[in-house]
Amino acid sequence: MRRAVLKEAAKRFPWLANVTLYGCLFAGGDLVHQLMAQKERMDWKHTRNVAIVAISFHGNFNYFWLRALERRFPGKSAGMVFRKLLLDQSFASPLATSVFYTGVSFLEGKEDIFEDWREKFFNTWKTGLMYWPFMQFLNFVLMPLYMRTAFMGCCAFLWATFLCFSRQNGDGTAGVALAFVMDPRKTLEEMREARLARKRQKAQREN
Fold it and tell me: Which residue from 199, 170, 151, 25 is spatially nearest to 101, judged by alpha carbons?
């Protein structure tokens, strides 16, 4: 019954249902990261900022982007799916990653909103190439158009957990993220020491 209601809502209000679900799942990924990090206090401001970026940009962009891809390359033939995947990973994925790093930094009021982007974008994009092409292949082949943004939101729940970890503690690589899953406290301590070492080296170069 509940599934039927959600499906009907997605059909009748596709933009609202898709974008809202996408934003909620993305924010949920940040909450999972914070729980795994075993923080003393939940950083609700960071979750709010992630939700704002996800709803205002990611959800809306993906909703219209997926429709534009389908209009330009309609159908589920191998050639059409390949073209959609190629464009998605060469244009949409780098753009979405860039907006996440710079958007959250802007909402936090950081002096240099491109700092995280410069340090972690390329690693993050490479990690995404091990995940998103497979998820989007399933999306393009199995999902009807009105459900594709919602399906991306479900996939983005795990991806957002990774992104939030990478931005706050990691370096954008899958290896560090996996180490965090296996032993959060040890990994966070190692990453703190690495950041302090980089700051000391930067200060020495400037002096």
Answer: 170
Q: Which amino acid is at 185?
A: R
Q: What stretch of H or E contains 121?
A: helix 115-128
Tokens of 129: 């190439």
Stated pTM of the model: 0.84
Query: Is 23 within 8 Å of 51 (Cβ atoms)?
Result: yes
What are the pLDDT tens digits along the chain (207 aa)? 555 665 666 667 778 877 888 888 889 999 988 888 877 788 899 999 999 999 999 999 999 999 999 999 999 999 999 999 999 999 999 999 999 999 999 999 999 999 999 999 999 999 999 999 999 999 999 999 888 888 888 898 999 999 988 888 888 888 887 877 777 777 777 777 776 777 677 667 766
**d(C-alpha 206, C-alpha 30), whole Å:** 35
Q: What's the rounded Cα separation, in Å, for the pair 63 and 59?
A: 6
Q: Which two tokens stand for residue 88?
A: 């998605």
Cα dist from 199 to 34, 53, 192, whole Å: 24, 28, 11
Q: How many CB atoms lie within 10 A of CB 115?
A: 13
Q: Would you give the DSSP letter of residue 110?
A: -
